[in-house]
Amino acid sequence: MVNEEYIQKLIQFGLTPEEARVYLALLEKGSNGDMVGRLKDNLEIGRTTIYGILDRLIGKGWVEGIEVKKKPKRTHYVANSPIKMLDKIIHKNETELKQLKDSYIFIGDNLEKIFQEKKEIILENVHPGFIKYLKPLIERKWGIKSEVIERSESLSRTIFDYELVAAKGFPTNDCGLIIFEYDRNIETDENLIKAALATYKSKTEYEIRNHDIPGFIDLKIEDATFDGYVGAKVYIKEEIQREWILAGNEAVIPIKNRLFLIHGAEKNFPILLNVILKT
User: Fold this and answer.
1) Whose CA, among 46, 147, 201, 257, lies 20 to 30 Å from 133?
2) Average pLDDT for residues 111-133, to the nearest whole number?
3) Against a cut of 0.90, is the pTM above it?
4) pLDDT, position 224
5) What's the pLDDT score for residue 84?
6) CATH architecture of the domain covering 99-278
7) Which of 39-48, 106-115, 146-155 shows the lowest per-residue confidence on average (mean pLDDT)?
8) Residue 181: exposed, middle, or buried by beta-carbon count in 10 A (0-12, 13-18, 19+)?
C-alpha cells in the first residue's frame, strides 16, 4: 500500500516520507501489526533506521508498540486509526489558528500603528472612500495617528482602522474609528453585530489594562445603547478618587454593507457618532 499520493498527503499532516511509508505498511497489517524484521525486509529499510522511524511515529501518536513476548523480547507495531489521527491534527491546527486570530485582534493593528508612527498621515493620503467621514473631524482640529487597511478574502471583508486624536479626552485624547466593509448588506445581521461588539469590548479591556494610566486600579464595561445602536460604557477606577469614572463610550453602527466601530471619551464620542450618522 505504498501509494505515492497517500504519502504526499500524509506529509501535509506532519509525517516525513519515510514515516509515511512505514505507517502505510503497518496500516495494511490491520490490528495485528507487524514486527521490525518483516517491515525492514518488505520496505528495504535498515533495522537501525526503521527503529528510529517507529520511535518517531509512536511519539507522534500514529503507531503503538505492543509487547507480545518478553523473553526474547518481541514487539508488534500497530498503526492507529487514520481518521482519529487526522481529526486530532486538524483540531489542533484549528485551535492554534484561533489563538493566532485572537492574538491578531489584540496586537496586530497596534504593531502596525507602531510601524506607521513616524509617518505623517494627512487627509489627502487616506483611503478615498472615507475622506468624507474624516474631513469633518479634521476641521475640528482632530488628527489621524494611523490608518491600517486589511483585506480578508475568507471573511469577504476589508477592515479600515483609524486611530484619531481629538482636542480633549480622558484618560487620553485618543479616539477610534474602525470600518468593516463587507461584500453584502449586514444591517440586519444581528449575530455579526453582537460578535463585533463582544470583540470590541474585549479589545478595549485588553488595551486599557495594558495602557500606562497613572494610578489605575480597575476597569468595568457596561452595555449601553446610543441612538438605538448597541455599544458600551467604559469605566475606570483610580487610586486618587477610588470611584468609578466614565472613561469613554463605544458603539457598533451597521450601515448597508459597512460596520462602524467607534470609541472615544465622553466629550468626543458624540462628535464621532454624529459624523457617522449624518454623513
Assistant:
1) 201
2) 78
3) no
4) 97
5) 92
6) 3-Layer(aba) Sandwich (3.40)
7) 106-115
8) buried
DSSP the chain: ---HHHHHHHHHTT--HHHHHHHHHHHHTGGG-B-HHHHHHHHT--HHHHHHHHHHHHHHTSEEEEEEETTTTEEEEEEPPHHHHHHHHHHHHHHHHHHHHHHIIIIIHHHHHHHHTTS---GGGS-GGGHHHHHHHHTTT-EEEEEEEEEETTTTEEEEEEEEE-SS-SS-SEEEEEEEEESS--TT-HHHHHHHHHHHHHHHHHHHHTS--TTEEEEEEEEEEETTEEEEEEEEEETTT-SEEEEEEEEEEEETTEEEEEEE-TTTHHHHHHHHHH-
Asked if pLDDT for residue 253 goes beyond 50, the answer is yes
Return the domain boundaries, the chain: 4-80, 99-278
Render pLDDT for 52-100 as a digit per residue (tens, 0 to 9).
Answer: 999 999 999 999 998 877 666 778 899 999 999 999 999 988 888 888 8
The grid coordinates listed for 189 are 445581521
Distance CA 88, CA 145 (A): 44
